[in-house]
Amino acid sequence: MADQHSPRSLIVTLYGAYGRERPGPLAVAELIRLLGALGVDAPSVRSSVSRLKRRGLLVPARTEDGAAGYGLSPDARQLLEDGDRRIHDRRTPLLSDGWVLAVFSVPEAERGKRHLLRSRLTRLGFGSTAPGVWIAPARLYEETRHTLRRLRLDPYVELFRGEHLGFAATAEAVATWWDLGGIAKRHEAFLDAQEPVLDSWTSGREPGPEEAYRDYLHALDSWRRLPYADPGLPMELLPEGWPGGRSAVVFAALHEVLRDTGALFAQN
């Protein structure tokens, strides 16, 4: 999570949490105010906005009063909508849901796209079963399709749905397809950082808008990567004592306690 709490990451988190609710773009001055509450200085905000603009995620626009601002591009809105399903999905994964397979072949002359495909599938939560063959829970199909089309990688990929029939037991196989130990450590790091925050807000403390906004944005910025690193495997395939369920409960509680109060500061 090297990019966690970077100015660029916090800007994306801000738009996902509160920016989409506004009828128009966010003024640059407002971005500086809101990121300043998170400890980000104005030059860092401006340079990060420029990078997000170059990536096609933010588009320049004027607010109703004529101030310079930035809104979300259609691609960015799709990314955030896909992210909503990951971030707030509390459904219990079932083994009977099956799997989605991504099988790709990239010509040697375009090997840069091979690297892009691997990195993007990894970021979507896929595990690797063999060279050019990647697997994820079937519920990730729609987001995978959106992402590969947006990046114009779909001509190189075929997607399939199915079940795992062997020869290894599925619980043994998933331990080779994903780094479950590494994913567990990320959940534990989230819990170490955010359980004390939740305890402080649920022990009689009244959240003020700015403090609630700050704690919520930091929690969301930390959490929103985890549902991508962790593909959401059925419990029967996971090691005993898996921390993913507990970290999801902690984030959901923080969302419930802080999100709306933080909006009073974000939309002031």
From TrEMBL:
Q: Which InterPro entries does the UniProt entry name for this protein?
A: PaaX-like_central, PaaX-like_N, PaaX_C, PaaX_trns_reg, WH-like_DNA-bd_sf
Where is each Transcriptional repressor PaaX-like central Cas2-like domain found? Answer: 97-174
Transcriptional repressor PaaX-like N-terminal domain residues:
7-73
Query: Domain named Transcriptional repressor PaaX-like C-terminal: which ranges?
Result: 178-267
Gene3D superfamilies xref list: 1.20.58.1460, 3.30.70.2650, Winged helix-like DNA-binding domain superfamily/Winged helix DNA-binding domain (1.10.10.10)
One GO term (biological process): DNA-templated transcription
Q: What is this protein called?
A: PaaX family transcriptional regulator
Record the organism.
Streptomyces inusitatus
